[in-house]
C-alpha cells in the first residue's frame, strides 16, 4: 500500500513503548514456560506412570491438554499481535487461530467445572460410582466438541482486512450486521454468551460444588469428634479438611481472578468505545497475561494439593519411576466401593464411625 502510515504513527499507544513491551515479553515468557513445563509433567505422570486409568486422571489429563493447547495457540500469537498491532501471519491462520484459542479456553473452563462436579459427587455419594472410566471419556469428548463448536463463530467471521491510509493488514471479526463504526449486535450477543458459558456459569457451579464439599466435610469432622478417636486419627481428619479447604478456595479464586479481567475488558470492547484509547492495548495485554496464568496455575492447584500426585512428581524428578507407579496404583483403587471397604479395614481407627457417610472419601 502506497502513501500509508503505520498504525504506531497514526494511533500511538502505551504498548508501543519499548520498556512496556520488554516487561510484557518477560511476563509472557514466564507464564508460557511455567504452563508448558507444569502441564507436561502432569501429562507424563497421568499417561506413562500409572498402572490403571482413573476418572480423575482422565479429567486432569484433559485439563492439561487443553491448557497446553491454550499456551501454544493463545500466548505467542496474541502477544506478537499485541506488540505489532497488525497481522503478520498468513491469512488462513487468522481464521484458524481464533477457533483454536477459543476452543481450548472453553475446554479448560468446562473441564474445571466437571472436575468440581466429579469431586462433589464423590463426596456426596461415596458408595456409588456415578462416573466410570467410559462415561468420563464420553464427557471429555462432549466437552471438546462443545467447546470448539462455541468457538466456531470467531473463525467464521474473522478475516484479514486493510484500512485506507494504514500500512499492513489486520485480523478482524467482521460480523454480517456490522455497522460502519464496527459495532455489531451479533458480536455483542456472542460476547455475552461467551461471558456466561466460559466464565459465569463455570464459576457459579464450581463455587456451589466446593461449598457443598466444605459443608459435608465439616459435618463429617463434627460427627467423628463425637466418637472416641485416637489423637492421631483426629489430627489426620483436621489436616485433611484444612488441605481440602485450601485447595477448593485456590480453585475458585484462581479461576475467578485469572479470567475476570479479560472478560471485563472484552465486555468493554464490545459495548464501549476503544477508538483512540492509548491505554487499551496495554490493559488488554495485562488482562490477557492474567488469564493465561490459569494454564500455569492449574497444574499447581490440581496436582500439588493432591499428596499422591505431589509424591509422584517428586519421584519423577528423582528418577524413581517404580514409586510413581505404586503410588498411582494405590490412589486409583480408592474410587471403587470394594477398595473403599478394604481401605477402611487397613485403617481401623476410622472404623469407629459410620464410614459410609457422605464426605468420608479423600479429596
User: How would you characterize the largest beta sheet?
Assistant: 2 strands, antiparallel
Main sheet: strand order = 1-2
Number of helices: 12
CATH architecture designation: Up-down Bundle
Shape: elongated
The gyration radius over C-alpha positions equals 24 Å
Oligomer: single chain
Q: Would you count the extended β strands for me?
A: 2
- The CATH class turns out to be Mainly Alpha
- Total domain units: 1
Fourth-level CATH superfamily:
Rhodopsin 7-helix transmembrane proteins
Order of helices and strands: HHHHHHEEHHHHHH
Uncertain runs with pLDDT below 50, 5 residues or more? 327-363
Mean of pLDDT: 81
User: Which percent bin holds the helix content?
Assistant: over 70%
Give the distance, in angstroms, between the N- and C-terminal Cα atoms: 61 Å
Which class of secondary structure composition applies to the elements? mainly alpha
**What do we call the CATH topology?**
Rhopdopsin 7-helix transmembrane proteins
Protein name: Neuropeptide Y receptor
Subcellular location: Membrane
Membrane topology: Multi-pass membrane protein
Main location: membrane
